[in-house]
Fold:
Amino acid sequence: MIKKSLLLGFSVVLLSSCVSKKIYNDLEKNFEDLKAEKALVDQENTDLSLQKNQLELDKNALQTQLDKLKAEYAALLSDCNTSKSTLKNLQGAYDALEKSSNASIQANSEKNRDLLAQLQSKEKALQAEQDRLEKLKNDLGNNEEGSESGFYLELKNASATAETALQAYQTENNSLSQQLSHKATNNPNGIASP
Structure:
């Protein structure tokens, strides 16, 4: 009887020991799977953070470039206005010289021709400067809401791309955190085991 009891007890211990080992192995495998999954999620999180940081750097660089172009445009516009004023004064001086006596005009005709050549040269330079300003204005683009162009459009697009990436990152991070939480608590809504 003692032999049967010992045999029965030993069999129970042996069988329960096998089941415990199987459960332990399953839990060990699940733990390793979760560690691998967490490493993947951490890597993806790091990659998305790097992308976000790069997009923010790009946005800041574009904003700096835009501010620099605005300042350059304002300075060039001021120079253009000064040149226009100078041209107007020179044109007025030329008109006054032209109205003076014929004797003075004859004596100073060579000087007047030089002044006229200078005026024409300055007009050409002014026109070139105005063309350059117009090109800068076109490059700078339009800042009106809904009809942005040029650098304003690039800045708007970079901001939208950064916002989209941030939202995708946050959504993916929240989803993965929730799935990991469900997986850790054996919730059926968690990540499916392979």
Remarks:
- The mean pLDDT is 81.
- The two ends are 48 Å apart (CA to CA).
